[in-house]
Amino acid sequence: MSLSSSTRTPSQGARGAGRSAGGGSNRLPNSRERRPALAALAVILILLGAAGSALIALNSGNRSDFVAIGADSLAPGHRLEAKDLSRGDLAGATGGLIPWSEANKYIGRYTTTWLYKDQFITPQNLTKDGAKPTPLGGALVGITLEAGRAPSDGIEVGDIVSVIQVPTSNQDTGSASTLVKAAIVTASSGALIDSKTSASSTLNVTVLIPSDKLAGVAAAAAAKSLVLGTLAPDTKPEISFNDGNN
User: Fold this and answer.
1) Contact 156, 196 (CB under 8 A)
2) Which residues, other chains included, contact 228 with Cβ-Cβ below 8 Å and sequence gap of 6+?
3) pTM (2 d.p.)
4) Sequence-ordered list of residues with C-beta below 8 angstroms from that of 198, at least 6 positions apart, any chain
């Protein structure tokens, strides 16, 4: 009968075809299909590792030695010694630091600021070659002297002098007074007598004095009422440079 034929179940082949059409998108890739992706990932990881190693090697190769502080701390005005320094290496931006190969050039100079252990230093942390910093509590003052105001053979750097104020020519009364008992001369130029013409000239000196006496000495220097007398070389000045031996 034609009616009974319409109720028959689909054939086995049709059911198989339906399953194949409906389930194709859920199929997991097999091992052969995964191999190219894994291989590509492995290559990427190898390249990244090689790049990182090359970068580390490059940075390590650019490291250089620089001057650092080996002492616990150094105060301003300290005279630098070899034992105060240590060697440290750095890579990257190191402009301005002192190379270790130039360390000896800075031995004997004076610190201009506080420096601490393991701190890398620059030339600005130290005085220029031959220069000394003004010590704490001290002041440098310039004095211009004419003939009769200093020993005739002149005053040299390192001399110890006494700074004395005398009455000026327009003062009717007054007596000499010692403003600084002992001061060290840090600079000297000119002469009291011109060696070529034997004419009177001027001697310009700079002396290191206690800062609390600066106003009085400066006023007397401006008034040209100062006389300097040299003292024994072993006389202790009222204030001196810190030689870094303390």
Assistant:
1) no
2) 143, 145, 149, 150, 155, 161, 162, 163, 164, 205, 207
3) 0.52
4) none
Contact at 8 Å (CB) between 204 and 143? yes
Bridge partners of 87, per DSSP, are 67
Please give the Cα distance from 30 to 9 (Å, whole number).
34
C-beta of residue 165 within 8 angstroms of C-beta of residue 226: yes
Integer Cα distance of 60 and 91 in angstroms: 7
**Which helix (H) or strand (E) segment is 53 a member of?**
helix 31-61
Q: In 3-state terms, what secondary structure has residue 192? A: coil
Query: For residues 84 and 110, is the Cβ–Cβ distance under 8 A?
Result: no
Residue 143's nearest CA partner among 194, 170, 183 is: 183
Q: List beta partners, residue 237.
A: none
Residue closest to 76 by CA, chosen among 109, 111, 107: 111
Tell me the per-residue pLDDT of 30-60, one tens digit each, with 9 for 90 and over: 655 566 777 777 778 888 887 776 666 555 5
Q: Tens digit of pLDDT for each residue in 117-170?
A: 999 999 988 888 877 778 889 998 999 998 889 998 889 989 999 999 998 777
Residue found by looking up tokens 């300097």 in the block = 228
Residue 38 host element (H or E):
helix 31-61
What is the b/e burial string over 65-91, where b = at least 16 CB atoms within 10 angstroms of the residue's CB?
ebbbbeeeebebbbbbeeebbeebeee
8 A C-beta contact, residue 211 and residue 137: yes
**Widest Cα–Cα separation across the chain:** 161
